[in-house]
């Protein structure tokens, strides 16, 4: 082998070595950029998770408040239903007195006793049974 052939082989070997080093450097730079991008994405996702957790916490608080309000309204509905039933009993008793029962209780209607209908002074419908049922 001649010295010029050996020099050419050494030159190719040196160029290949330089090319490999440059390729390895570019590969390391791509890897570093990818790692940086992944770290930034992780931080953004953690921020999104924090915001979502805050929203969820707020929604859960509102849900709990609405659930308590719903329970209160159910209890009030039950109380008002019992009150309406009681009023209906009073109304039934009033009607028995108004019409006069078999027991000889006198009829105290407005026409016979000379009194005005107390409901008419307030612009309320005269059907008091309708009043109780309209509440619900």
TrEMBL record:
<dbReference type="GO" id="GO:0005634">
    <property type="term" value="C:nucleus"/>
</dbReference>
<feature type="domain" description="BZIP">
    <location>
        <begin position="15"/>
        <end position="30"/>
    </location>
</feature>
<dbReference type="GO" id="GO:0000976">
    <property type="term" value="F:transcription cis-regulatory region binding"/>
</dbReference>
<keyword id="KW-0804">Transcription</keyword>
<dbReference type="InterPro" id="IPR004827">
    <property type="entry name" value="bZIP"/>
</dbReference>
<dbReference type="Pfam" id="PF00170">
    <property type="entry name" value="bZIP_1"/>
</dbReference>
<keyword id="KW-0175">Coiled coil</keyword>
<dbReference type="InterPro" id="IPR046347">
    <property type="entry name" value="bZIP_sf"/>
</dbReference>
<dbReference type="GO" id="GO:0003700">
    <property type="term" value="F:DNA-binding transcription factor activity"/>
</dbReference>
<keyword id="KW-0539">Nucleus</keyword>
<keyword id="KW-0238">DNA-binding</keyword>
<keyword id="KW-0805">Transcription regulation</keyword>
<feature type="coiled-coil region">
    <location>
        <begin position="63"/>
        <end position="90"/>
    </location>
</feature>
<feature type="region of interest" description="Disordered">
    <location>
        <begin position="1"/>
        <end position="29"/>
    </location>
</feature>
<dbReference type="GO" id="GO:0045893">
    <property type="term" value="P:positive regulation of DNA-templated transcription"/>
</dbReference>
<dbReference type="InterPro" id="IPR045314">
    <property type="entry name" value="bZIP_plant_GBF1"/>
</dbReference>
<protein>
    <recommendedName>
        <fullName>BZIP domain-containing protein</fullName>
    </recommendedName>
</protein>
<dbReference type="GO" id="GO:0046982">
    <property type="term" value="F:protein heterodimerization activity"/>
</dbReference>
